[in-house]
UniProtKB/TrEMBL annotation, chains A, B:
Residues 1-141 form the HTH marR-type domain. It comes from the Bacteria. One of its GO terms (molecular function) is DNA binding. Keywords: DNA-binding, Transcription, Transcription regulation. InterPro entries: HTH_MarR-typ, WH-like_DNA-bd_sf, WH_DNA-bd_sf. This is Transcriptional regulator of fatty acid biosynthesis fabt.
DNA sequence: TGCTATTATTTTGATATTGGAACTATTTGA
DNA sequence: TCAAATAGTTCCAATATCAAAATAATAGCA
C-alpha cells in the first residue's frame, strides 16, 4: 500500500473513531434522556434486554471492575433505567435487568448503531459486505495478537 | 442489507472499536514508556513534530478545553515529553513542541497506527482501497450530519 | 499616548470515572 | 461443621475534566 494512502486511511479511521462517542453523547443531550452518559448507555447495552446477566458477567464484558459497575448500577437504579434482581437459586448473585425506561434507551441506542452501519455499508452488495467483514476480521486479529485477552 | 449481517457488522465494529484504545494502552505498559497514558500520547500526537502549534489550537484539535490541556501539558513537561515555547511575536501565545523523548514516542505511536492500517488494508488493491475509503467517507458524513461541529 | 476591550493561557474549585483493597453475605466442600 | 471460595459492595485515592475567575499581553481607538 502506497504511503500517502496509508496516511489518508489512518486519518480517516482516526477521525471517525474519535467522532463516534462524541456524536452519541451529543445525541443523548438532545434526546429525552438527558440524565445519562454514553458510558451508562453502554452499560445498559451490555446488561441487555433478553436475559438477566450477573454483575460480574456484565463487568467482564465492559472490561471494568465489579466495584466500578456497582456504582454505575447504583446510579442507573436511582435514575430508573436498571433493576437488581436477586437470584433465588444462589443468593450471592445479583442479576441485572432493564426497566421500561431502560428498554426504551436500549432500543434508541440500537437504532443509532443500525443507522451508523447503514450509512457505512447500506448500499453494498453481498460480495462487498463480505470483503468489508474480512478486512475487519483482519484488524481484529491484529488487535488480538497485540493483546490476547481481547478474545471473547 | 440483511438484518443479521448488519448485526454482525455492528458487533465487529463495536468490538474492534473498543479494543483499539485498550491495546494501545497495553502496548505502552510493555514499552519503555511506562509513565504515560494513551490520552497523553494522543496529546503528543496532536502537538506533532513539524510545527509549533499554540495551546488553544491543540486543545481544539483534541476537543478538550484549554484548561484541561494546560494540566496535561504540565504533566508532559514534568515527564520530559513536551516543551513550552513562548512566541516572541505575540507573548500571549504558548507554542508547544516535543522533546527528544516526545519525538521518540510520537514515532512509536505513528508506527503502531501504520501497522494497524496495514493489518486492515495491507493486501488490498487500488480499487479495493478506494472502495474502503468511500465507505469511511460515508460514515464520516453520517457523523457530521449528526453533529455539524465534527467538521474539520 | 493612555485606556479599554479582546485574546491566550493558567489557576481554582467542583464533579465524575475508575481501580484496588477491605469487607459482607452466601455457598461449597472436606 | 466450619474454613475456603465466590459474588457483590463499600470506601478511599488517583485521575480527568470542565466552567469560571484570574492573569498576562496586545490591539485599537479617542
Amino acid at each position: 500500500m502506497d504511503f500517502t494512502t496509508a496516511r489518508r486511511l489512518n486519518q480517516l479511521l482516526t477521525s471517525v473513531y474519535g467522532d463516534i462517542l462524541r456524536v452519541e453523547e451529543l445525541a443523548l443531550r438532545k434526546s429525552q434522556f438527558k440524565d445519562i452518559s454514553i458510558k451508562e448507555v453502554h452499560a445498559i447495552d451490555a446488561i441487555s434486554m433478553y436475559e438477566h446477566k450477573t454483575t460480574s458477567q456484565v463487568a467482564r464484558e465492559l472490561r471494568i471492575t465489579p466495584g466500578t459497575l456497582t456504582t454505575m448500577v447504583n446510579h442507573l437504579v436511582r435514575k430508573d433505567y436498571v433493576m437488581r434482581l436477586r437470584s433465588d437459586d444462589d443468593r450471592r448473585f445479583v442479576r441485572l435487568g432493564l426497566t421500561r425506561r431502560g428498554r426504551l434507551i436500549y432500543r434508541a441506542h440500537e437504532s443509532f448503531h443500525r443507522h451508523m452501519v447503514e450509512s457505512f455499508a447500506g448500499d453494498m452488495n453481498d460480495e462487498q459486505l463480505h470483503f468489508i467483514e474480512k478486512a475487519l476480521l483482519n484488524l481484529q486479529a491484529f488487535l488480538e495478537f497485540a493483546d490476547p485477552t481481547a478474545k471473547k
